[in-house]
Amino acid sequence: MWIYEKKLQYPVRVYSRDLKMAKYLVAQYGGPDGELSAAIRYLNQRYTMPNPRAKGLLTDIGTEELAHVEIICTMIYKLTKGATPDEMERAGLGSHYAQHDGALFPTDANGVPWTSAYIQAHGDPVADLVEDMAAEQKARATYEHLIRLTDDPGIKDTLKFLREREVVHFQRFGEALDHVQRYMNSSKF
Amino acid sequence: MHGEQMKMLKKIQAVEFSATELTLYLDTHPDDRAALGDYNRLASELMELKKRYTEKYGPLCVFGHGKSEDRWKWLDEPWPWEIESEGGR
Predict the structure, then answer these.
(1) Which residue intervals define the domain Protein CotJB in the entry (chain B) (predicted)?
(2) What is the pTM of this model?
């Protein structure tokens, strides 16, 4: 089971309202390479992993990704808090207001709702772990785009933390892939 | 959230981050004895920090993982997304 902890993994500091940045940032909530995709991808793939290391790593990185969903949502909440319908419309969020008011909703940066079509599960540990490594690199690149789109030092700091986590996860998935391949070569798989 | 509570929470975040990093490392290096020692030291420190925080400010986790003395402090604000940044929102 999962236990919720009433704290963020990393502090979120936002200095001013910035609706445009919120619109871009939602890419990492409900976009193809976002944190929700990552969490569901890993937590779903773990069931058919062949060895304990891969099962453990997917469980633990999947769990960390859930904490990253919360960090992204907190940034979006703080960036949009108190915005009027008029301000939202001017920032390109008029259609979001029409359907969701000020609520959060997992979409990509263009407002396209999150879909499980963003993820895959082949039951083939090599195919799945290579997908996971690609996902981490795509998320890293997205964070670099987002860092360039803001001047807020608080937002930049948190995005840099999240970017760094993608790099670490990529490294760990690579080690798990290497181990899985050795495991498969040595067993009658 | 100000002062002592914020300071304690930041310390918990820092120690838990180190423990998280070591968890992922140990998943792919389970035989690294030095990392295992570091992990166990951090786990003890984290448990102690959370125990002290919970006694003062209420549970970080419920479902039986943290006590709430006197009253149900779980509902005390701010929730994590509501903690105001110094000089920010």
Answers:
(1) 7-82
(2) 0.97
